[in-house]
């Protein structure tokens, strides 16, 4: 027997994959960028950054700091009402709103002065004066949480269904393949939009469930094919000979040997679901009005572009483009590192 094969110091599949990944510079840079986004999401979730994204920090449509200050005509309602203390009446005419207006002026005069708003913000402000940079950070949290959780849900469903279909075959395979055919008979985007329109309930959890419960089909097909290949391999037959149950053979013996397919598909679907969340929120079927995401920012920027306010569109697009590109490049590097043919 080969002595090297018996050596306890022989590197595992994961150690070899990590070595190959470290040699890929593009993959490591992409991993660092994705890790940076994850740290931003954790910080936003803990309230360390962008916790006050909804605060009106600047004047309406405050320009980016690098673009210079413009006269945006900040709100002067309180000041106008405080200074406009006289009401002109024609002789013999009684104003029915005089007492109401006098009470309003007294209340405004007693109220503390409104905090001054900034004329410029680092990446500009929206129509309410909210900081676009903080909105982009908070939108990163929403979009990445949706992408990661929905992808995990879809991968879990696809792996279980693919394992049963590929391992057992027969009637079980026929039933699950029929379900797969039903879902794939409808274009995916139309299916997601139709379900979102029927539910008519916005929210992060709703988006996660819609994407996770409909996005398992492609992963199912690949996992099923892998289980069909592995169910007759020698190590599976040996596990059967020593009394391993069907569940042990499926999830203890076969699953680790097809995990590279599952991990690559997980990475791919994170990117897919981030883009789908942006599309849903852009069309008004995504997150609620009390939540910000890249899609909702793009939705708001439609009206702003008509007025020449481009900074919210640029911030959301840049944040999404960097993450999607980095995740896609990392997925390619991960696929190469986990390829068993390169062992």
Textual characterization of the structure:
- This protein has 343 residues and is mainly α.
- The protein folds into two domains: 12-55 and 131-342, MetI-like (MetI-like fold, Orthogonal Bundle); 76-110, no CATH class.
- 67% of the residues lie in helices and 0% in strands.
- The chain is built from 14 helices and no strands.
- The protein has helices at residues 3-6, 13-23, 25-45, 77-83, 98-110, 132-168, 170-184, 188-199, 204-214, 217-230, 234-241, 246-282, 294-306, 311-338.
- α6 crosses α13 and α6 runs parallel beside α14.
- It is elongated and about 100 Å long.
- Residues 1-7 and 71-87 have low confidence and may be disordered.
Q: What level of helicity do the residues show?
A: 55-70%
Gross morphology: elongated
What is the SS-derived class?
A: mainly alpha
Which regions are unreliable across 5 or more consecutive residues at pLDDT < 50? 1-7, 71-87
Euclidean distance between termini CA atoms: 20 Å
- Largest sheet, described in full? none
Beta-strand share of residues: under 5%
Mean pLDDT: 84
Number of strands: 0
Rg estimate, integer Å = 29 Å
Shape-level CATH architecture of the largest domain? Orthogonal Bundle
The CATH class designation of the largest domain is Mainly Alpha
The CATH topology assignment of the largest domain is MetI-like fold
């Amino acid at each position: 027997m080969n002595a090297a094969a018996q050596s306890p110091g022989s590197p595992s599949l994961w150690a070899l994959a990590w070595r190959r990944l470290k040699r890929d510079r593009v993959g490591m840079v992409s991993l660092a960028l994705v890790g940076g986004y994850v740290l931003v999401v954790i910080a936003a979730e803990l309230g360390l950054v962008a916790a006050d994204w909804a605060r009106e920090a600047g004047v309406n449509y405050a320009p980016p700091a690098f673009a210079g200050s413009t006269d945006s005509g900040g709100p002067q309602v309180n000041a106008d009402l405080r200074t406009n203390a006289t009401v002109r009446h024609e002789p013999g005419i009684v104003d029915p709103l005089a007492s109401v207006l006098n009470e309003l002026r007294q209340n405004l005069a007693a109220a503390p002065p409104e905090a001054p708003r900034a004329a410029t913000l680092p990446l500009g402000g929206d129509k309410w004066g909210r900081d676009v940079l903080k909105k982009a950070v908070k939108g990163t949290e929403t979009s990445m949480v949706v992408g990661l959780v929905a992808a995990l849900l879809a991968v879990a469903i696809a792996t279980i269904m693919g394992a049963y279909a590929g391992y057992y075959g027969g009637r079980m395979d026929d039933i699950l393949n029929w379900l797969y055919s039903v879902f794939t008979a409808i274009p995916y985007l139309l299916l997601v939009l139709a379900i979102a329109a029927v539910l008519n309930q916005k929210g992060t959890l709703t988006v996660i469930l819609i994407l996770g419960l409909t996005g398992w089909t492609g992963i199912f097909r690949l996992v099923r094919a892998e289980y069909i290949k592995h169910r007759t391999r020698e190590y599976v037959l040996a596990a059967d000979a020593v009394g391993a149950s069907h569940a042990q053979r499926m999830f203890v013996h076969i699953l680790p040997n097809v995990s590279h397919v599952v991990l690559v598909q997980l990475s791919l679907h994170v990117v897919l679901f981030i883009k789908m969340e942006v599309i849903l929120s852009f069309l008004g079927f995504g997150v609620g009005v009390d939540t910000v995401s890249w899609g909702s920012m793009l939705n708001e920027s439609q009206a702003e572009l008509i007025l020449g306010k481009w900074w919210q569109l640029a911030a959301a697009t840049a944040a999404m483009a960097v993450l999607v590109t980095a995740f896609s490049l990392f997925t390619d590097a991960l696929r190469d590192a986990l390829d068993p043919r390169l062992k």
